[in-house]
Structure formats: C-alpha cells, structure tokens
C-alpha cells in the first residue's frame, strides 16, 4: 500500500511538473516524425496480465520493397536516438504508473512473446508491477547480459522495499544525466534473448 501511494504521488507530480517538457517533446515528435506521437505496445504486467504501455515515438515508418518494416537501426532517427539516450521517450509511462499498470520502480516490462521462455525462478519478476526503472537498469542499464538482468529482476521482486526504490530512483537520475550504459537500439539484444531461450 505504501509503495502504491508513493507511485501515485510521484507519477502525478511528475506529470504536473514535467508538463512543459511533455508538450515540447510531443510537438517535436509530431514535427519530425509525424503522427502518431505515441508508441503503444502490449506488455505483460503483474502475473503476466497484458496492459498497453505508452512511450513517445522514436522511429519513422519505413518499409522495404515488400512492405516489411526496416530494421530498427534503419528506422530510428537522430532525434529518436536523442530521446532514447536521455530517456525522454519513457516519460509517458508516468500515465501507466498513475493508472496502476506500472510502478515507478520494478522489473522493466519486456515483450509478451518472451513469457514462454522464462524459467520458473525468472517468472517471479511478474509478481510485482513492472517499473519505469529498476534494479537491472541501475546495475549496468542495458549493457548487462540478459541472464544478469533477469537475475536482478528476481532479486528485486524478492527483496524490494521503499528505501530500495528511492535509492534506485536516485541512481537512475544519475545515470540518465551521464547517459551511462544506454543501448539506443536494443532490438538486437531482444532477438538474442529470443534465440537463446528457444534453444
């Protein structure tokens, strides 16, 4: 209950105080990438229950001769790279937190199709709300291996408390300011996880 109260207050405060930033980023996304402004995708929440996560759009619509989307590395724009490296694309997730789909701190929600590839131990990451940031993100961010990231997620699910959340938030702010350990186009990492878990 205390964690949920913290999430509601923090997300509402963030939405209010950062509203000028939201407006500027939304305007720039509309101007540089067109509509839609937001990227929406179904992700697993608590107990694997699907929810719609919302982020600022960072890639242009571009397809090959057969109408298939080009690789992420070819669709992301310099502006999109800037949004990802500064984590500004994640700001709309405060709305997910306010709704109760996510928490400020928790395991990052991965793709639905990965649910079948987690071990029984790793499934514990879904016993808590997914987060805007998490223990794995402040322990190397996207630069750690998948197994390490999933271990950190399980560790968080087993041991989390409010003081731990506050420390993770401050570490996140520090890393974002320094832009440490960020993978701007993580599709290759996602594919690696899928390939490894299908073996």
Q: List SSEs in N-to-C order.
A: HHEEHHHEEHHHH
Q: Rough shape?
A: globular
Read across the widest sheet, the strand sequence of neighbours is 1-2
Radius of gyration: 17 Å
- Total of DSSP H or I helical runs spanning 4+ residues: 9
Counting DSSP E segments of at least 2 residues, the number of strands comes to: 4
Total domains, how many? Answer: 1
Biggest sheet, in brief?
2 strands, antiparallel
Helix content: 40-55%
Approximately what portion of the residues adopt beta-strand conformation?
Answer: 5-15%
Low-confidence stretches: none
Q: Quick check: average pLDDT?
A: 85
Structural classification: mainly alpha
End-to-end separation in angstroms reads 40 Å
Summarize the structure in words:
This protein has 199 residues and is mainly alpha-helical. 49% of the residues lie in helices and 10% in strands. It contains 9 helices and 4 strands. Strand 1 and strand 2 form a beta hairpin. The longest helix has 17 residues, at 162-178.
């Amino acid at each position: 209950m205390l964690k949920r109260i913290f999430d509601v207050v923090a997300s509402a405060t963030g939405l209010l105080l950062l509203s000028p930033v939201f407006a500027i980023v939304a305007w720039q996304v509309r101007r540089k990438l067109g509509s839609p402004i937001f990227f929406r995708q179904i992700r697993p929440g608590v107990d694997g229950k699907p929810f719609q996560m919302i982020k600022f759009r960072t890639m242009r619509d571009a397809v090959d001769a057969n109408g298939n989307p080009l690789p992420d590395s070819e669709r992301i724009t310099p502006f999109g790279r800037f949004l990802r490296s500064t984590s500004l694309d994640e700001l709309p997730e405060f709305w997910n937190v306010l709704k109760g789909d996510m928490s400020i701190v928790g395991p990052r929600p991965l793709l639905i199709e990965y649910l079948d590839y987690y071990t029984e131990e790793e499934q514990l990451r879904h016993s808590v709300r997914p987060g805007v940031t998490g223990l794995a993100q402040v322990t190397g961010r996207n630069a750690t291996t998948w197994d390490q990231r999933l271990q950190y997620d399980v560790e968080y699910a087993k041991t989390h408390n409010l003081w731990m959340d506050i420390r993770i938030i401050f570490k996140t702010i520090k890393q974002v300011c320094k832009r440490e350990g960020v993978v701007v186009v993580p599709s290759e990492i996602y594919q690696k996880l899928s390939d490894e878990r299908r073996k």
